[in-house]
Amino acid sequence: MKQMSPVHNQVGGVQTVVEGAVVSMEGATKQVALGVNYSAQAGEALGSIIGEVGNLLSMVQQVATSTEEMSTVTEQTSMDIQSIALGSKGISSGSDEIAQASSTQAKVGTDLQGMTAHFTV
After folding, report:
1. What is the pLDDT of residue 121?
2. Residue 36: phi, psi to the nearest 5?
3. pTM of the complete model
4. pLDDT digits (tens, 9 = 90+) for 34-44
5. CA dist 110 to 12, 39, 106, Å?
């Protein structure tokens, strides 16, 4: 058998190191591919979250608008109730005046009847 030369031994050593590096690089390539896949999934999830946050923001704005509208309606209703209360007071006052005038008219009618009772036709 022939003895291997030192150059041949060095070439064999380099080949072994290169093969190890290739195996390592293949493993790293697989890990990078996994990382890219996970990043894509995270991107999709973030896109979905952003969409849902947009929907939530829209709902919050709708609630705020509805609350504002309810407040306006409540204020208007309160003003209407105050107006009705004032109208009721006016009606009550008017009713009191009518009752007083009716009483006065009844007294005047009674007095007239008493005065005219002396006259006969």
Report:
1. 65
2. -65, -40
3. 0.51
4. 999 999 999 99
5. 144, 104, 6
CA angle 96, 99, 104 (to 5 degrees): 125
Cα–Cα distances in angstroms (integers) from residue 105 to residues 56, 100, 109, 113, 118, in the given order: 72, 9, 6, 12, 21
**Domain regions of the chain by residue span:** 10-113
Query: What tens digit of pLDDT does each residue of 33-80 get?
Result: 999 999 999 999 999 999 999 999 999 999 999 999 999 999 999 999
Q: DSSP letter string over 8-43?
A: HHHHHHHHHHHHHHHHHHHHHHHHHHHHHHHHHHHH
- Tell me phi and psi for residue 71, to 5 degrees: -60, -45
Rounded CA gap, 38 and 25, in Å? Answer: 20
